[in-house]
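Extended Data, panel c. Modelled sequence:
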Amino acid sequence: MARVNTLSPSPQKAQSPLAVLTNFVRKTLVIAEWEVRKIRHDATDLVMRAVQPALWILVFGEVFTRIRAIPTGSANVSYLEFMAPGILAQSVLFIAIFAGIAIIWERDLGVIHKFLASPTPRGSLVLGKALSSGIRALPQALVIYLLALILGVKMNFNPLALLGVLVFVVMGAGCFSTFSLIIACLLKTRDRVMGIGQVLTMPMFFASNAIYPISIMPSWLQAIAHINPLTYVVDGLRSLMLASTPFNIVNVSRDFGILLIVTIVLVTIGAMLYPRIVQ
């Protein structure tokens, strides 16, 4: 009788595409949950970040509503209403654009080395961090909604519209945080990432439709606004948040599609560059 070699490695069973996808999603959620748990140890960060959008909508919004200096494109929409979704998008941008600094801290603490030594897909590591940035941005949406209601803005409380707002907030934060992660993987120092973040935030904010319509911009700035992801975050939020703005499924689908494509591209690039942070 022929002897069976028990020492020979048994071939690994190939996983089905569904099993691979399930494993990817599970590990992504684990990374996101690990990141969100950090909020419990420093909840003051959320409070401090809520100060800036509150000042924008209370001071800038109230003043320009009274002087009617900036057109909104509709007689039914006051400037305060026009501005509220833009300030929410600004908050999302400002929260997410410095997320790359945390990656550098993790590298210095040795956490990134442990992640890279694990079988966790690089895409799960990047997407999990992007998702956690989106969750961190949700309290900003609550602050903007409360302030807007106090100031008399007519908000859309349709459940589907609220769900759409959450999707745009999370996806917008994920998009910009992944962009910050890519910058961190390339530059590798906190000072450089902080400097680039400060250089990019205000141009991205002002080269969008957050505080004025694209139609009043010069032609060269309109071209920049149309390739600025923040423009599509603002446009989607404006369509979903305001009761005075007619809902257009075509425009919202376009904004969502463009933002989704940009996020997928950035997550893919981030997954490829992620190991470079330790080199």
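Residues 53 and 231 are 17 Å apart (CA to CA). This feature is highlighted in the accompanying rendering.
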